[in-house]
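[recover] target loaded
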């Protein structure tokens, strides 16, 4: 095992109990004995790869962090969301619903990714961006500011998008 649940608990406003994690071995830039973030149970963070939850970050419900993905800052991952590959979620971001973040993607700031949305490739989502519905942000795209990408919108390629609402991209 690469980590364990400690006796430190955090109770969410919903009443769910989360446990702080502790590394049982050194890997990537995590040192043995280092305290991490918060999970509801072992199902929220894979024991394989270099994935890690750090700082005040929380992962709960059926959400899971896999492979080499990192979640830190004050981010929350919940619902049935999956964080894969070498992706990073940080700041005050929220990823939830059935959404997926994978590849080398970054979701940061106060961004929200939810519904069945996907962020993948080398995409970056930051600021106060909302990606939701069945929307996709992929490739080398950067979506920032107060932009909303939603429904069946697909932002892929090399775009840099900012603005109030993006549709039909």
């Amino acid at each position: 095992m690469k980590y364990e649940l400690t006796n430190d608990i955090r109770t969410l406003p919903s009443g769910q109990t989360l446990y702080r994690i502790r590394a049982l071995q050194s890997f990537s830039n995590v040192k043995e004995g280092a305290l991490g973030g918060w999970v509801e149970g072992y199902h929220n963070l894979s024991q394989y790869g270099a994935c890690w939850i750090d700082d005040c970050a929380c992962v709960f419900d059926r959400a899971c962090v896999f492979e080499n993905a990192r979640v830190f800052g004050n981010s929350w991952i919940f619902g049935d969301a999956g964080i894969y590959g070498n992706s990073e979620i940080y700041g005050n971001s929220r990823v939830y619903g059935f959404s997926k973040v994978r590849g080398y993607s970054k979701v940061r700031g106060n961004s929200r990714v939810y519904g069945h949305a996907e962020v993948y490739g080398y995409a970056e989502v930051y600021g106060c961006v909302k990606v939701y519905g069945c929307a996709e942000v992929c490739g080398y795209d950067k979506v920032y500011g107060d932009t909303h990408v939603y429904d069946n919108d697909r932002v892929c390629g090399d775009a840099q998008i900012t603005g109030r609402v993006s549709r039909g991209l």
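[recover] notes: The domain at 3-162 is CATH 2.160.10.10 (UDP N-Acetylglucosamine Acyltransferase; domain 1).
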